[in-house]
Give the backbone structure.
Amino acid sequence: MKQYSFIAILIAAVFVGSCSSSKQATSEKDAATAQQVNEKIQAKDYQIDVDYATPARGKGISLSYGYNLKIRNDSAIVYLPYYGVAYSAPYGGGEGGIKFGEPMKEYKAVPQKKAGDWKITFKADTPDYNYDVTIDVYSNGRAYLTFNSFQRQSINFNGQVKL
């Protein structure tokens, strides 16, 4: 009987040891991801691949591959869909969606209380619309984008910082 209890204790010890080493590997991976995200944001050279849109009214929409926001130095390059109400439309209807490559105004990247989290804000004026953009980036690389405009209803997007 003692032999069986010894084997059970040995198996439990191996199991507990393997769980703690996997937690350590996961926390090291999380720390590396947070470091990469921080470096990209501080360098003002990052891309957020967007996979989900949430209009001001209606249900959220899963998006296919290819929609993104890129920050390169002092410019924002945006290729996103738009679902919502436009209060005014450009002459000729415009391109549709949120598509521009413009210099950013009032760009701010502020680290948050939780290590690795950022709040980024900027303004972009396009020939058709003016946008106030807010991006919440988390240490795991997930991002939550909000586009506000006087000419359109606001819309939110979820995405991932490309590492």
